[in-house]
Specification:
The protein folds into two domains: 1-30; 34-200, Glutaredoxin. Helices cover 40% and strands 17% of the residues. It has helices at 3-30, 78-91, 95-100, 115-123, 136-145, 187-200, and strands at 47-50, 55-57, 66-71, 102-107, 130-133, 169-173, 176-181. Strands 2-1-5-4-3-6-7 form a seven-stranded mixed sheet, with helices on both faces. Strand 1 (47-50) and strand 2 (55-57) form a beta hairpin. Helix 2 (78-91) crosses helix 6 (187-200). It is globular. The N and C termini lie far apart (51 Å).
Length: 201
């Protein structure tokens, strides 16, 4: 192989590698397809408190698909959009899918989001949604395990402040992260993915 030919092969190989990387990132960000990921890489066991004040862990959803989204009830926009879109996707799904899939909302603002506040907020979207609360330090660790950005509120702004947090939703099944959706994933794509998750359960 001549030096010129070698350079061409290297350029083509780099180009193809770039295409493969782009496709992987595209599917992970848009949610167009189920992406299986090792649970040791994303997520893992968790122990939090639900909106009824009862302990809840990943073992409570063993064998069932569950979705995890971090947000807060005073969120001015994106949280409402994400929760509404998933509610719409579930409403248009079959009864079996609606029964099997669970949405877990982890509040990033435990100072203001009491269990009662979270329950009232989630009922606006879907009464089957489950709210999880925990001290900010615990939430921070859980978000880090899911590669979700999160800045703990410092309370310096009093009662009127915003919380910076990531807007991805992660689906888990059988101990593995199966798909990551961005906040702008179309409802039709969410419904299709939820249906496939339910079939894999």
């Amino acid at each position: 192989m001549t030096p010129a030919t070698s350079r061409i092969v290297l350029v083509i190989s780099a180009f193809l590698a770039g295409i493969v990387l782009f496709v992987i990132v595209f599917f992970m960000v848009t949610g167009r397809g189920l992406q299986t990921t090792s649970a040791s890489a994303i997520g893992g066991p968790f122990n939090l408190i639900d909106q009824h004040g009862k302990p809840i862990s990943d073992q409570d959803f063993k064998g069932r698909p569950f979705l995890v989204f971090f947000g807060y009830t005073h969120c001015p926009d994106i949280c409402n959009v994400v929760l509404a879109n998933f509610a719409s996707a579930l409403r248009g799904a079959t009864p079996a899918v609606r029964k099997d899939v669970r949405m877990l909302f982890v509040t990033t603002d435990p100072a203001r989001d009491t269990p009662d506040v979270v329950r009232a907020y989630l009922d606006r979207f879907d009464p089957t949604y489950e709210g999880l609360v925990a001290p900010a330090g615990t939430v921070e660790k859980a978000a880090k395990a899911l590669y979700i950005s999160y800045e703990r509120p410092d309370g310096s702004q009093g009662g009127n402040y915003m919380v910076s947090h990531g807007t991805y939703t992660t689906a888990f099944l059988h101990g593995s992260a199966r798909v990551v959706w961005s906040a702008d994933t179309p409802v039709a794509d969410l419904r299709a993915d939820l249906t496939r998750l339910a079939r894999l359960a």
